[in-house]
Design a protein that fits this description.
about 240 residues, alpha/beta, seven-stranded parallel sheet, 10 strands, about 30% helix
């Protein structure tokens, strides 16, 4: 694992952007996976004017890695948020966006392998150490993409809010992420400092599911100084 500590959100977003653009300029089919949430908004704001309507980026394929579909609909909040903050303003054609659903999750990993695998995935660190849709005490470390009833996740995470309209959660599991060629985690803010310290310094556990990602052979973690503020100063972080 390579840990990169930048001064602020702008600097860490630039760092992540350079990794993405480098991957996107490869002379082959390029498959990438991006995260929704608060942290990547500046990253996308920087990227959009550089890739929008650019011929060299028109054939990039995008894969969503989790979803909580609404009753009676295929997709949920993840697709809606990514569409609003990146896909639509970047003029990404729907034909190049691959969404995970109740209809296709069982074949999703196979489809990705047939397409050459994901070249780079950008993901965040949840407030409780979750990654993608893999949450504490209910993460299937030995699984590829899987579907779980939301009530089962809620049963072991009582602070999570009720989602009566979204009874299922679908996510790529740890094994799916281990196949990604380059994992890039972005973490910012003082509010993430405690869980970031646990993620970095604690052993792999169900209590902080993202710790499993430290086994990935090409894993870059980019954070700002605020998120890194509680890390042990004398600890060897070359993991």
């Amino acid at each position: 694992m390579k840990l990169v500590i930048e001064k602020d959100l702008k600097a860490m977003s630039e760092n992540a952007m350079y990794i993405l653009l480098g991957a996107m300029l490869q002379d082959k089919r390029v498959n990438i996976s991006l995260t929704s949430g608060r942290t990547p908004r500046m990253l996308y704001k920087m990227m959009i004017p550089l890739i929008k309507d650019q011929e060299k980026f028109k054939d990039i394929e995008y894969y969503l890695f989790d979803e909580n579909p609404y009753i009676g609909e295929k997709y949920g909040t993840n697709w809606a948020e990514m569409k609003e903050m990146f896909f639509e303003p970047a003029h990404i054609s729907k034909e190049h966006i691959h969404r995970i659903s109740l209809d296709n999750w069982q074949d999703y990993d196979w489809q990705i392998r047939q397409a050459g695998g994901i070249d780079v995935m950008v993901l965040g660190l949840g407030h409780d150490g979750h990654f993608c849709g893999n949450c504490p005490r209910c993460t299937q470390f030995d699984s590829y993409t899987y579907c779980m009833e939301y009530k089962d996740k809620l049963a072991v995470n009582p602070t999570y809010g009720e989602r009566p309209r979204q009874p299922y959660t679908i996510t790529m599991g740890a094994k799916s992420l281990m196949r990604v060629k380059h994992l890039v985690m972005i973490v910012d803010g003082q509010e993430k400092a405690e869980i970031f310290k646990r993620f970095i310094e604690e052993p792999i556990s169900q209590e902080v599911p993202a710790t499993i990602l430290k086994l990935h052979p090409n894993f870059t973690v980019i954070c700002d100084e605020a998120a890194a503020s509680l890390l042990s100063k004398n600890k060897d972080l070359r993991l």
